[in-house]
Amino acid sequence: MLRRMKLGKYVPGNSLIHRLDPRTKLLGGLIVVTAILVNYNWPVLLLNTGLIFMVIFLSEINLPSVLRGIKWLWIIFIFSFLAQCVYTQGNPLFSLGPLTVTIEGVYRGLATFLRLLILFLSSTILTMTTSPMKMAGGLEALFAPLTRLRVPVNQFAMLVTISLRFIPTLIEEAETVTKAQKSRGAPFASPKKLVRLKTLLAVLIPLVAGSLQRATDLAVAMESRCYTGGPHHSRTKNLRFGRRDLAALAITAAVSILPLLYIYCAALPVQSLQNLR
Amino acid sequence: MPVIEINNLSYAYNGGTPDEKKVLDNITLSVEKGEFLGIIGANGSGKSTLIQHFNGLLYPQSGSISVLGFDTRDKHYGSQLWKYVGMVFQFPEQQIFEATVYDELAYGLSNMELDRAEIEVRVDEALANVGLVPEQVRAVSPLCLSGGMRRRIAIASILAMKPDILVLDEPMAGLDPEGCAHILAAIKRYRQEQDVTVIMVSHYINELIVLSDRVALLDNGRLRAWGPARELLARDDLPNYDLLLPDYLKLLHNLKKRGLKVKTGVLTVEEAAGEIGRVLERIKC
User: What is the pTM of this model?
Assistant: First the structure.
């Protein structure tokens, strides 16, 4: 289970998608997801699916390995497809005992499958091509207007950065502690529920104790480097505004507008089609 | 008779994904009963992955490993292996979870389904072995103790299980000299009393070479050398493997590189001093 969680892990690279501004990717992903959630007409679904696969191609991520890595998700995909096939009312296609598969059901099932696939792939690609630091910087910039409403956006961004930073560490530590307790005969596969619960505690307690210790250390380390929770102290801010390089920005802007335009064009017919209805 | 036999063992993390990384590459090695095997190598050389094969936490992806005469991939045997192979992980104090020192040490023992009286005897024995006074610490919460003490308690919790093979991964990393001395003494004492096989991974090469009967050198997942410490240290390619060699060994290797005829296969500072003295004599003549 823990190994699979590493699927969305950032894969360092230098592809077109990697170099995009995190805000572009966040907004782009949001637009795609919104488009397929509000509407599942064929043009929308197919265009968005095409877009996602184009982005994967451009991000130089090994697609077959990503699809192979989500074995357990395929079960959900196939199950929801089958459920839609059977439970949708409409013109029957064929019957299998008490179950009747309808043409509408097959269409709906396919649509659901594509929507789930797009949801999954777009978020995976976002995290696989955006480093956690960049992601937090992008979120901070996008939520910046909320500072006027006295929402502590900077602190929130720091919170997100720190949590993202420690997820791999925690996973690694959980693996090690699990192995260490297994080496002392911890009955992880015991048939008794209470024993299994106690065994789980043998992993959770060291993890929580370790995290608290680490949080204390980190707080001291941050304070000793003059962190007071205000803006302009985080590294991402400095990266973006301090070392602004005009040439690099121009290229990034040009590159990021293209997929946005593409998404906008794809989303346009959705609106008009809905209006027609 | 070898207690551990490894044949052409290979292992890769994340096989079949974009992050596939080969950590162990075709390793063949055996450990005799009662032997002290030292394992050295730079960070990421595969040491920790290798030792996790010894008690069935990891299974070989290709090749084979048999421990105490049986293949670890045997399902019924592999899951019982923890009783015979004690594994002390790096920073073992992280695994402590019970409310008292006694319960912490008793955890593995009660999983072995020993009776209460036996557990009590073994807990006291193990605490004494790591240089703690059982009456003082038994009822204390481990979280109140210092890092060095917690490390000793974690090691004691493995020693109490009296494994035939004791595997230690960097047992002294990050400890003060006194803590190191306690742990080394505990390992030596356990070895004498029980006649067990010990396998130890360490960056403290000067300590390791004195203790070890044989030393294995890992580099990028490959076994580069394996044999008695003196033979291993005599190798001219030793400085190429990013090891934290003790200063006296670095000095001897440098002297040899400059063309002086010195033996580099020495274990202690005293031996190194003798060797340098001998060479100086010869130059004067």
Answer: 0.73
Q: In this model, does residue A76 exceed pLDDT 60?
A: yes
How far apart, in Å, are the Cα atoms of B165 and each of B82, B114, B168, B219? 10, 19, 10, 24
B64 and B180 belong to one structural domain: yes
Share of chain B above pLDDT 90, in %: 48
ipTM above 0.85, yes or no: yes
Residues sharing a CB contact under 8 Å with residue A55, sequence separation 6 or more, in sequence order: A17, A125, A259
Q: Which of residues 98-117 of A touch B (CB under 8 A)?
A: none
Measure in Å the smallest separation between the Cα of A32 and chain B Cα atoms: 26
Name residue, tokens 């190194």.
Answer: B272
pLDDT at A249 > cutoff 80: no
Q: Do A6 and B19 touch (CB under 8 A)?
A: yes
How close A69 comes to chain B (CA, Å)? Answer: 7
The CA distance from B230 to B224, in Å, is: 15
Q: Is A61 on the interface with B (CB under 8 A)?
A: yes
pLDDT for A190 beyond 50: yes
In eight-state DSSP terms, residue A271 is H
In a domain, B77, yes or no: yes
Of A61, A183, A206, the CB nearest to B96: A206
Run of H or E residues at A167: helix A153-182
The number of C-beta contacts closer than 8 angstroms across A and B is 68
Q: How, if at all, do strands A99-102 and A92-96 pair?
A: antiparallel
Last residue of a domain, one of B210, B226, B242: B226
Q: Is residue B4 part of a domain?
A: yes
Contact across the interface for B94 and A176, Cβ inside 8 Å: yes
How many angstroms away from the CA of A179 is the closest CA of chain B? 7
Between B133 and A52, where is the model more confident? B133
Band of residue A269 on the pLDDT scale cut at 50, 70, 90: low
Chain B residues whose beta carbon lies within 8 Å of the beta carbon of residue A66:
18
Is B175 found in the same domain as B113?
no
For residue B111, give the nearest of A9, A65, A185 by CB distance: A185
